[in-house]
Design brief:
By secondary structure, the chain is α+β, with helices and mostly antiparallel strands. The protein contains three helices and four strands; from the N terminus they run E-H-E-E-H-H-E. The longest helix is centred in the first third of the chain and has 16 residues. It has one domain: Alpha-Beta Plaits, CATH 3.30.70.1060. Strands 2-3-1-4 form a four-stranded antiparallel beta sheet.
């Protein structure tokens, strides 16, 4: 599942949660849920590839993020498949 993450508010109100957000993403990388993570060059969003069985699980993962809980992020989801 490809998740596109967008910042909802000005950057200044996001910085206070950035350390918690980064720590949670690191945990998800360590446990294999997040397979790839790319921050946009302008730092206003990110692309995240997660390994989940379905959309509901991917949504649960993103909505548990500290910045999502604070209503600072929005997400869009795209199901991915192997090219074969």
């Amino acid at each position: 599942m490809l998740i596109q993450q967008h910042g909802r508010r000005a950057v200044t109100c996001r910085f206070f949660r950035l350390a918690a957000e980064s720590a949670r993403v690191a945990e998800l990388i360590d446990d294999g849920t997040v397979e790839q993570f790319y921050v946009w060059a302008d730092r206003t969003g990110a692309y995240v590839v997660v390994k989940t069985p379905d959309l509901d699980t991917a949504q649960a993962v993103t909505q548990a993020q500290p910045m999502a809980k604070a209503d600072l992020l929005t997400f869009s989801y795209t199901e991915l498949a192997s090219p074969a």
